[in-house]
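Appendix B, example 12.
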Amino acid sequence: MADTNLSRPYRADQVGSYLRPDELMQARENRQKGEIDAKQLRTIEDKFIRDLVKMQEDLGMPVVTDGEFRRASWNKDFLGGFDNVVEQPGNLKLYHRNPDGTNTTNQITGWAVTGKFKRSHPIQVEDYKFLQGIAHATPKTCLTSPTLLHFRGGREAIDKKTYPRMEQFFDDVAAAYREEIKDLYAAGARYVQLDDTNFAYLCDARFRNAVKELGEDPTQLVDTYVKLVNDSIRDKPKDLLIGIHLCRGNSSTAGAATGGYEVIGPQLFGGLNVDAYFLEYDDARAGGFEALKDVPKGKSVVLGLITTKRAELESKDTLKRRIDEAAKIVPMENLCMSPQCGFASGASMKKRIQISDEVAKVKLLVETAREVWGGM
């Protein structure tokens, strides 16, 4: 049985997803073709999750995930588990900065809520039970942030007949998330992470202008989302640790959103009732550490210093220097470190980095954390 006595993130932590082995990818394809059934696919997933957990523990990771091996993407499988939620093209464009300085633009995938939003069955609970049953380190489960249900489509994506007032919709979303978290806790979960892109996108002038075109005030939207997240975790027990990962886009080598956290820092850090912030700091997109001045005393900041977007291995000396820089603003005892994002936000992400690179980066993470903090 895994150790679930957790008061803060571990010094070496992680965002969650890992590269899927070729055999697992083939099994998913076979399932789509109808060549194997859901039970057969799950048996194959079980095998590779066991292997992944062993790999993480062998490398010394004190917290493990299932790599999101049962998901096609970090958000689709989870959000699609709620009632009356369907995938559709979003109303926002996603901007990617290429290494040569040019930009690539594509329409972002979104969601439509076609009726009353509710959770008629557990979504992540059985997957968590399996992870907990095989882990010796602390198991962490990752949930897609509730803000995605609104940000990518706006008011027009929410059925107006069912929800003439958006407050009613947000109340139903929060209630459904509380039900999921309650059942996860009953199953033994003591560490839950919310994965959110939208707070980071609202640091970017391009996205702020885009939401204005949808009729939203970006400053007010931050407050709306802070309230939604807080309402979603409102009933969390004291011994349940909840972190939030603020993603800047992970589907290209340069990411999507730019702009320092100071744009929304007072609202974000001062408002969210989470225990820990997982912040991407692997390149210049996030700016400096100055925004961390708004992090309340006692809350943890997990510095995402190791990139998952490129194979090159970071220098230990550089990582340590950056941790020292952050410690001038947030006390060292409240700092941890992690990769900046998951290694594979989607199942097909395996072109820019290989599993051997992934292993080397996790090994670097553990070694650096031990040398900086001593224990984990």
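The longest strand covers residues 103-118. The chain has twelve helices and ten strands.
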